Amino acid sequence: MRPFRSDELARILLIAAMMAAIAVSAGQLAARVVPGFDPTLLAGLAFLVSLEGIAGDRLARQFPEASIRLRLHLSEWVVLLAALRLVISLAQGPQALAAQASRWLARPQTLVDGGLVAAGALLATVWWLGIRMSRCLEALGPEAEAPPPQESAAFYAWLTRPREDRPGEGWSRLRQHVLTGGVLLILCSGLARLDLQLALSLRHPAIAGIVGNALLYFLLGFALLAQGHYATLQARWQRQQVPVRRPLGRRWAALATGFALGVALLALLMPLRPSLALFGAAFRIIWGIAFLLEQVGLGVLAALGYLLHLVVQLLGLPSTGKASMAPPPALPAPQAHPQAPPAGWWEALQGLVLWAALAATLVYSFNRLVREQRGLWAAFAGRGLLAWLARLIISLGRWFSGLGHSAGAQWQSWVRRVRTAGRIPPTRLRPPWPRPRNSREHVWLLYLLSLQETGRLASPRAPADTPYEYARRAAPQLAEATADLQAVTEAFIHARYSPRNPAPGDLGRLRAAYRRLRQACRRRLAGQREPPDAEPPAARSPAAGQE
Amino acid sequence: MSDLVSFLLVLLVVAALLRVDFFFYLFYLLVGLVVLGRAWARGAAHAVAFERQHPGRVFWGEQPVVRLVLRNRGLLPVLWLHVHDSVPIQLRSPNFYQQVLSLGPRERITLTYRLDCRRRGYYRLGPLAIESGDPLGTARVALSDATPTTLVVYPRIIPLSGLHLPSRTLYGSLPARQRIFEDPARVMGMRDYAPGDSLRHIAWKASAAAGRLQVRRHEPTVALDTTIFVDLDRSSYSQMRLWVATELAIVAAASLANWLVEHRQAVGLATNGNDALAPGAAGEPSCPAVIPPRKGRRALMHILDLLARVEMADGASLAALLRRETRRLAWGSTLVAITGRVGDDLLAALLALRRSGFSVALISVDPSAQFQAARQRAAQLGIPAFELWEEADLEHGALGRQCRRGDLASRGGP
């Protein structure tokens, strides 16, 4: 199974590269605050985090249950933060890492520091931005649904399916995200190059030089927007069944690239210094006006203060101005940090427990991450360093997976021994990897899950049953959940045949209805399996009455 | 677009505030991408010339190919071009042709599609609309060719056989059944002299060879100087068969004209229907379309052109058309009136024409229950009347069969 189409993969790599460009600027800004900070490290991390975030988001959207999605993202972020901690420490050298490791062992709370928080916040930003961009591109793309065979009954349903046209909605959102990232980047880049006070005074000299990552970001952004526009048009043409002559896609890519490079060269011819001087003059004028207004304001305030002072004197009130002015308290002298006392056995136990919990969380998260995102790793399984890394991660994942499986088997055997009555194993439909479900498909899935639940309790739905017929047939066995089954059926009918997509609020209500239905089904099923507590006397001894 | 402008303003302010040269470069780059992209899209789209090539006239049942020639006259490539050509629904389903393509500098691309001409008419192809844009989607250019081209689909022509229309015009090229008028130019054989034979008909050489007097036998011939009158008045047809019957009338007229031209006869056409090309104010009935009798293929093409264009009209009776237009016709001409229902006024007009020296035939394409009575009455007046229900009647020689049954022979001669 191919995890991504080639054009999709190219777009995701573009997004990741753009996020890395933002991270370079943020890293440069951080390097001004924290000397010795390496911005390229952050850029590499941002690239990987964006890739992983997009893949993780696609995976999470496969599941209708919010709890599964939350668990997936939590495990993802635990691994990301652990990797970030390790990378930040490694960047300071092996000795620093060893020193920090001993400190972490002694005090696990020292794992979290300002650098980790700042880098984590940046990575969270690029993670979120990358996901948003990827979602917009998905919304722009052509329908990935393959038609069923023409001789099947599903073909007519597929042919007459409601098709929606969302002109420019996803496109404008993508543009907004690209521009938001651009604002972030130029602010970080600008602030990394000069002092804010000097910038506000407008007396600092102009800064020359090429901001390579900004150029890269905007060129990649242009390529992404051009690709997005092409995808929008392609989807429209597909819906309208307009034939497209073959070389259009290649020619589009070549012409857009050539156009961008041509404009980039043309922009080199534009003057920078005169425009700087012009803007400097304009800002001086504005600054002068602001200074004048400030002076006028101060004068008015002084006049008001003098008038107030006169009024106070006139009323004979005591002036408290001098009395209230107490001298500022002296700052305490900096004290030397006391040496930490040696940890006792209790602290050692606490640290051990904390570390065990952390290690278990880390192993579990890494295991899930590698297993569930194997499609992402498979995408890189070509040749070269990336392929080697992918193989390494996959093998690590397998090892952790084996570890997890053995631990899980032990745990399950222990649980089985404890529990007397067997419970119904939870059924989880494992959907295919590559495409996230849209809201319609979520409703369909919930309906199918509902059918699965009711099928165990009542008779399963026959192929000739319409949804309404089946709901009527199953209703007598689901006395308390009839309304929920009806709601799920109605939602399925709407999702299947209505031109409108289900609203997110409706999805939430539908999930709740499905949960209630599932609980009701399982309760009824458990009630059927339990042996009757007390049989009626007549049934127990038919001859009793005769006696 | 507003978010892009806002971003450019922010970039400009930040660039001016921070005095970073490269941000100005970025500003110029982004402005260039937007502005030049729009200029590119507009310039390239306006440089595209398009032309539609197709035969102007086609016969019924043909499938002509329409060629759309797109040519980029400029040096800028066209990034994408959505071509949409509208076509009448009678000629193609769906009633448009569309394609998306890209044009390089000075590139010429020919797109082709087929029409299925199964209905006669005078059609306008187009307009041709093209749409293009820039790589960022900030500009959308839509152009349209407002000069549609026309296509004439001739009505169906069914080959007729054994048709004998009445005629009073002598010395034509059609063999006649009655031997009253013999053409001395068309010798069909010899026989022995009988008393009473004209001396001018004696073949002296043959007599010398045979040893007894021989006279030439001449073929009896007539000429059909025919004018076909097609009734397209809406009130002459039943509502149920309105479209079918009027189209059948057109097909019958075209087939008759073709048969006559094939037999080297002069043929003309008059109709009270609306001609799309006839001068007249919109909404008003146009003047009756009349083509005087002429011989040859060119005359047939004129008639077929008119039959392709003509449409149903309101308020113009065939009887009035016959009275008005027969004044210009020569004595002895044959008039074929093709109509739906046969009324008393039409029979009266035909009788008057017959008495005036015209040979008259009547074809009803929407015969009602009263048609047999009308037919008998027409027979008493010496007017042959035929009925047609569908095109298959023409294919199977319904007109010829009715002639052979004696409908014409008994009443059609002079």
Which keywords apply here?
heterodimer; A: 547 residues; mainly alpha; B: 414 residues; alpha/beta; elongated; disordered C terminus
Description:
The complex is a heterodimer of chains A (547) and B (414). Chain A is 71% helix and 0% strand. Chain A has 20 helices and no strands. The longest helix of chain A is centred in the middle third of the chain and has 43 residues. Chain B contains 10 helices and 19 strands. In chain B, the strands form 5 sheets. Chain B has a 6-stranded mixed sheet with strand order 16-15-14-17-18-19, with helices on both faces. Chain B has a 4-stranded antiparallel sheet with strand order 5-4-8-9, covered by helices on one side. A 3-stranded antiparallel sheet of chain B has the order 1-3-6. In chain B, α4 runs antiparallel to α5. The termini of chain B are far apart. The C terminus of chain B is likely disordered. The chains are: A mainly alpha (547), B alpha/beta (414). At the A-B interface, α7, α9, α10 and α11 of A face α1, α2, β4 and β5 of B.
User: What is the N-to-C succession of helices and strands of chain B?
Assistant: HHEEEEEEEEEEEEHEEHEEHHEHEHEHH
Major pleated sheet of chain B? 6 strands, mixed
Alpha carbon gap, first and last residue of chain B:
86 Å
CA distance, first residue to last residue of chain A: 73 Å
Q: What is the overall number of helices of chain B?
A: 10
What is the helix fraction of residues of chain B, given as a range?
A: 25-40%
- Please count the helical segments of chain A: 20
- From the alpha carbons, calculate the radius of gyration of chain A and give it in angstroms: 33 Å
Number of strands of chain B: 19
> Which structural class fits the helix and strand makeup of chain B?
alpha/beta
The side-by-side strand order for the widest beta sheet of chain B comes to 16-15-14-17-18-19
Please write the string of helix (H) and strand (E) elements of chain A: HHHHHHHHHHHHHHHHHHHH
State the shape of chain B.
elongated
Helix content of chain A: over 70%
In percent, how much strand structure appears in the residues of chain B? Answer: 25-35%
Could you describe the largest sheet of chain A, including whether it forms a barrel?
Answer: none
Radius of gyration of chain B: 33 Å
Shape of chain A: globular
Which chain pair shows the most residues in contact?
A: A-B, 63 and 40 residues
